[in-house]
Amino acid sequence: MYDWIKLALRVSMRDLLALWLLGVVALCLGPQAFAAAPAGLAIGNQATATYSDGAAVTRTVTSNTVLTTVQQVAGVGLAANNTKTVSIGGQVAYPHTLTNTGNGPDGFALSSSGSGTFAFASVLFFADANGDGVPDNAVPITGTGTLAMGQAFKFVAVGVVPATAVAGNTNALAVTATSAFAPAVSATATDATTVTGQAVVGVTQSLDVTQGPSPASGRTITFTYTNTGNTTASNVTLSEVLPSGMAYVAGSGRWSGAGATVLTDADASDNQGGIVYDFAGSPTNRVTAVIASVAPGATGTVSFKVDIAPNLPAGAHPATAATVRYGYHDGAAALATVAANTVQYTVQAGAGVTLAGATVAAVPQGGVVVFTDLLTNTGNTTDSFDLATLASSFPAGTTFQFFQPGGLVPMLDSNGNQTPDTGPLAPGATYAVVVRATLPPGATGGPYAVQVQATSRTDASVQATATNTLTGVSSSGVDLTNNTAGALAPGYGPGVEALAAVSLPAAPGSTVRFTLVATNGSTVADTYQLQASTDAGFATQVLPAGWSVVFKRADGSVVDNTGVVASGASSTVYADVTVPAGAAAGTTQLYFRALSPTTGSADRLHDAVVVGLQRGLGLTPNHTGQAVAGGTMVYAHMLTNTGTAAEGDGAGSSVALAVANSAPGFTAVIYWDRNNDGVLDPSDPVVTDLSQLTGGSNGASTAAGLDVGESARLFVKVTAPAGAAVGAANTTTLTATTTGLLGGVAAPPPVAATASTAVIASNVLLVKQQALDANCDGTPEGSYTMAPIVSGAQPGMCLCYEVTATNAGPVAVTDLVLSDAVPAYTVYSATLAASATAGSVTAPADGAMGMVQASVASLAPGLSVTLRFGVRIVP
Question: What's the rounded Cα separation, in Å, for the pair 751 and 738?
Fold first, then answer.
């Protein structure tokens, strides 16, 4: 039996088309970045089909999710080749920059070999963290240590010329960096050295601050020159063309030979006491200094300032990398100019995000509410953003799902933290997040609101929150809640609550933030004072020693009240709670109060801070599916241990599993995917407790319970009653309830996931499979499977996807559209061009991202249509 996941969404074809067009526009405003696929990444993909059933109702069904784990490959870049002259018995230093171009952490060994008419007496390597071409210290190194993906390491190779060398001797020094992860992978740069008896001028450059924001003002570039030769050098020329991200500061030139005297910029012929200094603007943007003579043993500096341009992307890139070239007359001949070291200004990454919610008018009972939230990456680096619903006032039984732009393909987890996300999003890009809320039959009233939060993967403290509202009637009364307003908000209703509405984990010495929402249910505007206490009755507001609470607005300003809140409106304030460094493990009850000084109306909110061991489970996703009367649906949920201790082993912690159905006649059973292949097999056992998760294979749990970070796939098989009428609906709730103390820390609250099943006359089943195409020739190496690909997939390789839709109902379906999106960290590969066994096909351009679709006018009962296409993992 296949593991399929189906979704019934009651929206019109016109609405679907409008959503798809909006998604196209949003992606055109800012496309996803083609980021390289890091090692260990699980690339997930899920397909969707829309169709019209025998009653002309538009339906949507989603497939199972297929996962591919990216394997590590090594890569290294080494720059640059250098050319220098050196005196007999002297030393020469060659600057190099090594970059880990692989897709995972790696270390690199450094070695050298020389050839030519002389051999160095010794060659040693030294770290050069600031990139000024000079060793940081006298401690030699033999390797880089572990470097993260994309990380650069600067060092210098220092060679000592023997006293036996004679003028004219040469040496070609090959400097090699070798990967520790894959010793066959290496890179080599060559440093050319010529021995001379004449002048030998060495030049290095430095930058006073090597990293910071964009823009930045007054950064100083310094050229340092030294004559280590035997004769005077003349016409020592230093020249640098500034990159696009650096702008010269007029009047900033200085020369050590002239002290603090300002060097004139605009005249290329004025001799200023032994130096001719000039800056030529557009189009060359060049700084040039010609020093008349440098005696043996003499040294000096030339410096100037630059401004760093605004709005530069994060990281080290050509826009902020400057390389000086130099040449001189050594007393016998004019030497050709050569490059010295490159100084690099690294723009610090800054995360930023905005999220705009939406308001939708009332919809029919049992309908689907579609919110389109526009998310914009306002940071300066490619980032992905996790999406979550914080709280909801929608009726019990409402299910929420996130979809990609256009609303046709579910949003998946692309960064491996069990939370749906946008995938890599370039700076400035806008992404249309589609939030679908499926209401239970018979739901009435309102208003209903759901709060959506976007969290930066680069910096988890950077978040944006948007509220999506279904128009309705405001609730009355004064209320203080967590996270959002409304009937389902934590702490809703008169306080004080017997149990904490929200419990946040905290380490000793840290600060945690509670979001407080004060809602004015009176008929006039009012202001509420904000107070905190560890006493539920607020007999005292003195907190225990070392504890503190500071109320802040979103802009960071400190406040002690909500400000004016209009009738029926809400005000959001943050309570930053600081835990003392010596706090013992345990739970501290904390109470907040909103008090009107005018009317005396007040509400109290009970929250808690849990210090020490953190416990938690995550259960995702929610589903919406379809079944014929007497038929079944299998829903796949992932239960993940998100805490810092093992859960459910039956010793210190027990986790019970249970299902409940909202409609009579429906039944549900929980199975564990013991072999972790994504398919409900006859050998997959029925489970009611996590202690039963033993003896698994293929990456599934082998010991009872879930270790830290471990996940288990649970199938919930729902059976509709044989006599169910078309249109009947049921919500199945899977709940995982934890009991038992661990380290004195109480069990986390129960977690739940829902699956809404509608009884229909027609039934389309959708199955997604994949196969690895290592050489990208369009032919997979093995058979298609729903099981995860956990080995062999490397950047640059291809994946073949197969989506099969089967009409398992008694009547024909029409206007069938299979939709699948090219997942994050991959691009479409025309080597396996999109094709279908019936209908027409559309696909993005080769090497691009986008939607792959197959359209079929009609599909008779019992028939299937299959869509195939390929993607390439971004190297």
Answer: 9
Do residues 196 and 166 touch, judged by C-beta distance below 8 A?
no
CATH number, domain at 647?
2.60.40.10
Give the DSSP H or E segment for 17.
helix 13-29
User: In degrees rounded to 5, what are phi and psi of residue 856?
Assistant: -125, 125
pLDDT tens readout for residues 504-558? 888 777 889 999 999 987 766 788 899 999 999 898 888 988 899 999 998 889 9
Distances 385 to 42, 144, 455, 462, 818 between C-alpha atoms, Å:
16, 32, 5, 10, 27
Q: Is beta strand 286-294 parallel, antiparallel or unpaired with respect to 233-241?
A: antiparallel
Structural tokens at position 186: 């290496």
Pairing of strands 186-196, 82-87: parallel
* Contact (CB, 8 A) for 95 and 203: no
767 in the same domain as 665 = no
Total structural domains in the chain?
A: 5
Q: What's the angle, vertex CA 115, arms to CA 112 and CA 119, rounded to 5?
A: 80
Residue 124 burial (CB count, 10 A): 20
CA-CA distance, 227 to 616, in Å (whole number)?
Answer: 66
pLDDT in tens, 842-871: 999 999 999 999 999 999 989 999 999 999
Which residues are paired to 559 by β-bridges?
A: 551
User: How far lies 45's CA from each of 65, 374, 409, in Å?
Assistant: 6, 22, 9
Say if residue 145 is exposed, middle or buried (CB neighbours under 10 Å; 0-12, 13-18, 19+).
exposed
Residue 373 covered by a domain: no
First to last CA, the chain: 36
Residues 192 and 216 in one domain: no
Cα–Cα distance for residue pair 771/85, rounded to 1 Å: 57
In the structure encoding, which two tokens stand for residue 575, read together?
């309570």
Q: State whether residue 620 is helix, strand or coil.
A: strand
Looking at this protein, which amino acid is placed at residue 493? G
Query: Which helix or strand (DSSP H or E) is residue 152 part of?
Result: strand 152-160
> Residue holding tokens 């992932």?
638
Task: List the domain range (segments joined by +) for residue 174.
Answer: 89-196
471 compared with 287, residue with greater pLDDT: 287
Q: What angle do CA 731, 816, 55 make, to 5 degrees?
A: 60
Spatial distance between the Cα atoms of 167 and 330, rounded to a whole number of angstroms: 13
Alpha carbon distances (Å) from 23 to 15, 60, 706, 816, 858: 12, 18, 38, 20, 26
Reported pTM = 0.63
| Pair 683, 675: CB distance under 8 Å | yes
Cα gap 365→152, rounded to integer Å: 58
Supply the DSSP string of 529-572, one letter for each residue: EEEEESSTT-S--PPPTT-EEEEE-TTS-EESEEEEE-TT-EEE
Residue 866 CB contacts under 8 Å (≥ 6 apart), including other chains: 802, 803, 804, 805, 836, 837
**Looking at the structure, do residues 807 and 725 belong to the same domain, yes or no?**
no
Q: Could you give the CA distance from residue 446 to residue 425 in angstroms, rounded to a whole number? A: 35
What CA–CA distances, in Å, run from 17 to 53, 60, 370, 405?
Answer: 18, 14, 13, 12
Task: Looking at the structure, tell me whether residues 211 and 310 fall in a common domain.
Answer: yes
Say which residue the tokens 């970045």 belong to. 33
Give the type of residue at 243.
P
Structure confidence by residue, pLDDT tens digits, 77-105: 999 999 999 999 999 999 999 999 999 99
In three-state secondary structure terms, 844 is: coil
